[in-house]
Every structure is written in structure tokens, then in C-alpha cells.
Design brief:
It is a single chain. By secondary structure, the chain is mainly alpha-helical. It folds into four domains: about 50-60 and about 215-255, no CATH class; about 70-215, no CATH class; about 260-445, Arp2/3 complex 21 kDa subunit ARPC3, CATH 1.10.1760; about 460-670, Hypothetical protein af1432. About 60% of the residues lie in helices and about 5% in strands. The chain has helices spanning about 5-30, 65-75, 85-100, 110-125, 160-175, 180-185, 200-215, 235-255, 260-285, 285-290, 295-315, 325-335, 340-350, 360-375, 385-410, 415-430, 435-445, 450-455, 460-470, 470-490, 495-505, 530-550, 555-565, 575-580, 605-620, 625-640, 655-670, and strands at about 50, 55-60, 80-85, 140-145, 150-155, 195-200, 220, 225-230. The strands form three sheets. Strands 5-4-3-6 form a four-stranded mixed sheet. It has a two-stranded antiparallel ribbon with strand order 1-8. A hairpin with a 2-residue loop joins strand 4 (about 140-145) and strand 5. Helix 11 (about 295-315) packs parallel to helix 13 and helix 20 crosses helix 27.
């Protein structure tokens, strides 16, 4: 077995290894490009010295401008059709056949004119406009015949409606008798009009894609040495576009192979600084967590998980606003506490902002919303609290987002509504923290206040068993819970944990309930037949049995601590003193009359120890006056202090004085003096007055 010094070195090495692994993973996730050294926002003055172009670079179009170009290309795209000559020939022949039935020497010329008009229509082409296109915006169409494409004005082609109208008008103008015209129209001209230009979707889409690829991403150039922006000059939309272009070109240049290692080194140093700050916070404020391996792994695992979650927006091309980076800080807040969650929030936000396009706005939003989430969930005891907290988070997100949009853009546009939508998605995903908390409780042994509420329910099997087998002990536990809860509320601590621990501290008495005075009735006391050391063993045994029962019911370790420590390493003084009085010359085995302990470490366990002893003795008082109660409370707690029961506990003399005051107030109210009602006089049976 390694000695203590070796174990400390191994633990230190393990923690260093965990930190360096987190650093390596974080650096691996960082984008391997250079970072532009200037921070700027639209509508804000330029905070740096006058900036000149360090090299020639193009001015890139904004996304809005590119979208306009795409829409224009799509609108101007020529639809492509394939000519079908067979359809035209068949329909013209069929129409000529129908016209021959009306042919006479007087009608021949007019019928020929009508027939030629239909041929001309088919020669120009009959087509159908695709649903995806607006006929009013189409200028030209491209007609493919024998693998040769020809661009034709759209107005020179015919739709079915236009072809019908043109042919009808030609019939009306033809030199034909009215009766013949009516007979021709009665043939239903639509039967001879069909599209002979077939829309080719594939070729049209290919041409459209080619045209979109041909869109220029830039507009103009900035020459080396040109002034870009002066000190205190306002960052307008045009200046913003030039600065964004320089930033993009700057990153592209720094992302080259020759500067890759320098970029890696800078990122590693950045992450190590953030981790160092995070570690220093915990080493000096939560040293117990730092030295507890399981809690250390949990906390630093939450750090890495938050970084990985935040990187999804960059690596998976997910909108950054929709990524719920507050997910793990909320879990840490519920399971460990608000201070730990705040450190986690600040440490991870500094690094995740590296991915964000507008890093200052993103960091401001996350810190503001994170603080709201942490301090609105200090004690999560109802599901409604989580929903209300997430609502406040969404409101905070929205207010900060609105403020930055007004500062940077000067107005709120319809496009900004998507930002609110992504923030809403973010908050909806945060609701998944409620079921996930249970998983972390089981894996790392934490106990949330939700679990404590479930455990404090009297219908829990362990408490129901205590109620049935040791009802007096259950009533005692309720009294202890009330006293301890109020006291810990006054001095600061976890009232719900204190109450729950107090309810379970004596469950070991269900094993042999008759050996405890609160469960005895009818004057029967089994201790009368036992030796003092045997009686002490029965009394002490309730702590050991209580721990065993707690394991059987899968109670959390924080509850088991109340069972182990509610007597600490104190003695069963009644039987110890009785043994010494009866056998003054006999050597006494101190261990036989002493609880195994340990003494309480937390203030919650210390207060339950006080409440347990005070409540038990106060029951035995014949006259429960204020003076007697005060004397009992002071004597018992002062005795525990003298015996060193609270030497390792996180409790001060000031706290103990407050606890005493609370106990005296509550016990006085519980055992307040009642008015003695006069007894009814018995009537004499033979009294003649009756």
C-alpha cells in the first residue's frame, strides 16, 4: 500500500492529467484559424487607432446582398424547353382534316389562312409556364432542338390560352361565311392545341446552379495603405462590411500552415489560463470538492461537457443561439451550489465565446442569462420553479438580444425574429435538465432537493416502517426535524436536507423499539433485566442498524451521515454512570458505552445532534417552565461543546448561541403553560338535594 505522501502525489498527478486532457480536447475543438485582434460593433465608435489596410483585399458582399443576387439570378433564369415536332405535325394534320369538311371554292382561301396560323403557332411553340416561375418576370426562354439551343423572347411563344385566343381571332378575321366560322369554332379548338415545348427541369436546374455559382462574392478592392476607419469614427454599415472583409481575409492568411503551430500555442495558453482561473476559484473556495476525486471528476467533466456542447454551433453549423450552453451550469447549481455553477459559467463562457461571430454580445447574453438561471434556482423544490426560471432566462436573452440589435442595427427587422426563435429553442432544450438531474444523482451520488422532498414524504417505506414499529420514535423524529429545520434556517444552511436527515436519524430503532423509552408502555422496561453494558449495547446498536437499513432502502450518503453522526462519539451516559456507581472498583470498558461516531462535520448534522439530545431530555421534564427548558437546552449543548462533539463541524459559537435561542423559543411554545380547569365535583348518590 502506498504511504500518505505517495497517495497525495498520485492524486495531484491525476488532477493535473484531467486538466491537461480537458485542455487538449478544448484546443482540438477550437477553429484552427487566426483571430482578428479588433472587436467592433455596428453603430459604435472605433475604439482603436486609425486602421490602414495591411495588404490588398477584396470587399466581400454581405449575406443580404448575396441573397439579393441569388434571387435576381433565379428570377432571370431562362427556362429550358425541348421541342417536340411530332406533336405539332400530328395536331396540324388533324386540324387540316377537320377543315376539309368545310372546303368549297369560296372558303378554300380562308381555310388555308386559318390552317397556316395554327402552323405558325406551333412553329413559335406552345408551352406551359412552370409553377416555380412567374410568367410576368420571364423575358426569354431557351428552346433545344436537335441538341441546338436557341434563345427566344418569351412573348413570341404561346401558352395554351394565348394560342386559343390567337387562333380564334384568326378565324374571326378570315374571309369565311359566318356559318362556317361558327362550325369551325364548334370543333372545340382546344382539341388541336397541345404543348409542343416540353419543360426540361433537370437542364433548367443545372443552368440555374451554374448561374448561382457564377455570382461574384466580392464588390471592389481595398488597396494596401488605404485608410479603412479612423479613431472614434462611427462603424457604419459600409465600414462594417469592409472590416468584416478584412477580418475574413486576415483569418484566411493566418490559417496557413506556417502559422498553424503559433495558433495552436496561443489557443493552448488561452485555455490553460481559463482552466487555471477555474481551478484557483475552487481550490480556495471549495477545497473539499477539489480534493474529493468523484466530485472533482464531476465538476471538471461538466466543464468539458459545456465546452463540447458550445462547440456544436461551430462544428455542426448549428445556430449558436440555439445551443443550450447553460444546461450543465444549471445541473451543477442544483447538485452542488450556486457558487460552483457561477465559476463554471464564467470559465466556460470565456472559451465558448471564441466560436461566436459576435463574441462580446454572446458572452454578455450567456453571463446575464446564466446568473438569472443560477440565482432563480437556488433551491429547486418544485418543477414549476424550473419552468419559471427558464422563462426568466428567455426574457433575459431577449432583452439583451434586443438591446444589441438596436445598438448595432438601429432597428428591429423581420429577419431578427429568427434570433428570438433560436433563443426559444435554446430555452426549451434547457427543460431537459429536470430528468437528466436524476441520472447524475445516481452516477455521482449527489442528492438534489427534489430527491430530498421525495424522501421526506411520510409514505416512504422506511418512514412508514418506523411509524408502525416505533411510533414514539417517529414522533420524536418529527419534533427533532421541526427544531433542527428552524435552527438551520436561522444560522444558514440547507433546511430541507436538515429536516430530511432528522426524520431518518433514528430509523435504526425499528430493530428493537422496546428498548427505547418513547416506545415503552404499560411500565414494561426490558432494561430492568439487563446488565448496564448489555443495555448500552442495545442502545448503541440503533446507529449501526440504522446505517444498515439506510443502505437497504438506498438512502443517499448525505442522509446516512445524519444516522452515523447524531450521537457522534459520545457515551451512553445513563448506563455508563450507573455502571460506575454500582461497580466503583471494577475497571470499565469505555468502548462498550461509546458510540462509534464519527462526530458531525457539517452544520446540518451538528444541529440535528443538538436537537436530538434536547428534545429527548425536554420530554422528561415534570415542570416544563421557561426556566427549566432554558437550563436543559444550555446544559446539554454546553456539555456537547465541552466534550468536543463539534470540533470538526462547520459551526461557530455564534451559530450555537442562535441555535440555543431557537430551541428555547420553540420548546417553550410547544410546552406552553395551560390554564388548569377546575375538576367537576362528584354528586353524592344519597344527597337529598339531588
Amino acid at each position: 500500500m502506498p504511504n500518505k505522501k505517495t497517495r497525495r502525489r498520485l492524486n495531484f498527478a491525476f488532477r493535473l492529467l484531467v486538466i491537461f486532457v480537458i485542455c487538449a480536447v478544448t484546443v482540438y475543438l477550437f477553429p484552427k484559424v487566426g483571430t482578428f485582434q479588433y472587436e467592433y460593433q455596428k453603430g459604435m465608435p472605433w475604439q482603436y487607432e486609425t486602421l490602414y489596410a495591411p495588404f490588398d483585399f477584396p470587399i466581400y458582399k454581405t449575406e443580404e446582398e448575396l441573397q439579393e443576387d441569388r434571387e435576381q439570378v433565379i428570377a432571370e433564369q431562362e427556362p429550358i424547353y425541348k421541342r417536340n415536332n411530332e406533336t405539332a405535325a400530328a395536331e396540324v394534320e388533324k386540324f387540316n382534316t377537320a377543315l376539309r369538311t368545310f372546303e368549297t371554292p369560296n372558303t378554300r382561301e380562308g381555310l388555308q389562312t386559318v390552317a397556316r396560323r395554327l402552323q405558325d403557332i406551333y412553329a413559335a411553340g406552345i408551352l406551359q409556364v412552370p409553377e416555380r416561375m412567374n410568367a410576368e418576370k420571364i423575358r426569354n426562354v431557351r428552346i433545344v432542338e436537335n441538341n441546338i439551343a436557341e434563345t427566344v423572347e418569351f412573348q413570341k411563344t404561346y401558352t395554351l390560352k394565348k394560342a386559343y385566343t390567337t387562333l380564334s381571332e384568326e378565324i374571326d378575321r378570315a374571309k369565311l361565311p359566318k356559318s362556317v366560322k361558327e362550325q369551325i369554332l364548334s370543333l372545340n379548338l382546344n382539341n388541336y392545341l397541345h404543348e409542343n415545348l416540353e419543360f426540361d427541369l433537370n437542364k433548367t436546374m443545372q443552368a440555374e446552379v451554374g448561374a448561382l455559382k457564377g455570382i461574384s462574392l466580392t464588390q471592389g478592392m481595398v488597396q494596401q495603405g488605404d485608410q479603412i476607419i479612423g479613431n472614434r469614427e462611427l462603424v457604419t454599415a459600409e465600414k462594417m462590411k469592409i472590416l468584416d472583409s478584412l477580418k475574413k481575409e486576415y483569418r484566411h492568411n493566418l490559417g496557413a500552415a506556417d502559422s498553424y503551430m503559433r495558433t495552436m500555442g496561443g489557443q493552448t495558453l488561452l485555455v490553460l489560463v481559463a482552466l487555471a482561473i477555474f481551478t484557483v476559484f475552487f481550490y480556495y473556495s471549495k477545497r473539499r470538492i477539489f480534493y474529493h476525486t468523484r466530485e472533482f471528476i464531476f465538476l471538471y467533466g461538466m466543464f468539458l461537457a459545456t465546452i463540447v456542447l458550445g462547440s456544436l454551433g461551430y462544428h455542426q453549423h448549428i445556430e449558436m443561439f440555439s445551443v443550450p450552453v447553460l444546461f450543465f451550469p444549471i445541473i451543477v447549481n442544483i447538485l452542488i451550489g450556486s457558487r460552483s455553477a457561477l465559476y463554471l459559467l464564467l470559465g466556460t463562457t470565456l472559451l465558448i465565446s471564441y466560436y461566436a461571430p459576435n463574441s462580446y454580445m454572446y458572452a454578455f447574453m450567456q453571463v446575464a442569462a446564466g446568473i438569472v438561471a443560477i440565482f432563480s434556482l437556488t433551491h429547486l423544490q418544485r418543477r414549476g420553479q424550473l419552468f419559471l426560471s427558464i422563462l426568466w432566462v428567455f426574457i433575459t436573452y431577449s432583452l439583451v438580444y434586443t438591446a444589441f440589435m438596436l445598438v448595432q442595427e438601429g432597428e428591429l427587422r423581420v429577419a431578427h425574429l429568427f434570433g428570438y426563435l433560436w433563443l426559444l429553442v435554446n430555452c426549451l432544450l434547457l427543460m431537459l435538465t429536470y430528468p437528466v438531474i436524476y441520472i447524475f444523482e445516481r452516477i455521482f451520488g449527489y442528492t438534489s432537493e427534489i430527491t430530498l422532498i421525495e424522501l421526506s414524504n411520510p409514505n416512504h417505506p422506511a418512514l412508514r416502517n418506523l411509524t408502525k414499529k416505533a411510533p414514539g420514535t417517529f414522533q420524536h423524529s418529527l419534533m427533532v426535524a421541526n427544531l433542527a429545520e428552524e435552527a438551520i434556517y436561522r444560522i444558514g444552511g440547507n433546511p430541507l436536507l436538515t429536516r430530511t436527515g432528522a426524520l431518518y436519524h433514528d430509523i435504526g430503532k425499528t430493530y428493537e423499539p422496546i428498548y427505547f423509552i418513547e416506545n415503552q408502555s404499560g411500565g414494561i422496561n426490558p432494561h430492568d433485566k439487563c446488565e448496564f453494558d448489555e443495555s448500552a449495547r442495545h442502545i448503541i446498536n440503533h446507529v449501526t442498524k440504522g446505517v444498515e437499513m439506510a443502505k437497504k432502502y438506498n438512502l443517499p450518503e448525505c442522509i446516512v451521515d445524519f444516522i452515523r453522526t447524531h450521537h457522534g462519539k459520545s457515551k451512553v451516559k445513563y448506563f455508563y454512570n450507573s455502571f460506575k456507581n454500582k461497580y466503583p472498583d471494577k475497571e470499565i470498558d469505555e468502548a462498550a458505552f461509546t458510540y462509534a461516531g464519527p462526530d458531525p462535520v457539517t452544520r446540518e448534522c451538528a444541529v440535528v445532534m443538538m436537537a436530538d439530545a434536547v428534545e429527548a431530555v425536554s420530554r422528561t421534564l415534570k415542570e416544563k417552565t421557561v426556566a427549566n427548558i432554558t437550563k436543559v437546552v444550555n446544559d446539554i449543548i454546553d456539555g456537547q461543546v465541552r466534550d468536543g462533539r463539534f470540533a470538526n463541524a462547520e459551526i461557530t459559537f455564534k451559530d450555537i448561541a442562535i441555535v440555543k435561542k431557537v430551541f428555547i423559543e420553540m420548546l417553550t411554545n410547544i410546552y406552553h403553560s395551560r390554564i388548569a380547569y377546575p375538576a367537576l365535583e362528584k354528586k353524592e348518590e344519597n344527597n337529598p338535594k339531588n
